Amino acid sequence: MSTRVLIIPEDFRKDQFMLQPLIQRMLKGIGVRAKVDVCQEPLLAGIGEALKWDRISEILDDNRNMVDLFLLIVDRDCKENRRQRLGNIEAKAKKYLGGTRCCLIAENAWQEIEV
After folding, report:
1. Fewest C-beta atoms under 10 Å: which of 56, 86, 99, 113?
2. CATH of region 3-108
């Protein structure tokens, strides 16, 4: 059985072409068989939307029965507190997904995903 992964980028329209093959290769490199998809619905269209708990919980609700691992991956954009905000989202997701087999891990790129 393979792990089902859903990447949640701040805007999938360009980020998907970097993140999907990168995450797939990383998982393969550590011996994890995974089906890796990129969240395209809803279109978050920016960091402001990607950091809103209401938007993230909507994605979790829509996909929790089909996904084992959610990866929220955003740009850092020179914001030193970005990691702390992502940690808060991870904590909320842990409580929200409690009792299920899935989890959310959030991380920021060092500065831009494209770099």
Report:
1. 99
2. 3.40.50
Let me know how many helices (H) and strands (E) the chain has, helices first: 4, 4
Give the pLDDT score at 113: 83
Judge contact between 112 and 19, C-beta under 8 A: no
Per-domain residue ranges of the chain: 3-108
Cα separation, 19 vs 45, in Å, equals 16
Question: Which residue, among 67, 56, 93, has the nearest Cα to 5 in the 3D structure?
Answer: 67
Q: What is the mean pLDDT of each run of 10 residues along the chain (115 residues)?
A: 94 94 96 96 93 97 95 90 95 94 93 79
> pTM, whole model, 2 decimals?
0.93
Q: Which residue, among 80, 19, 85, has the nearest Cα to 48 in the 3D structure? A: 85
End-to-end CA distance of the chain: 33
Place of tokens 């808060």: 88
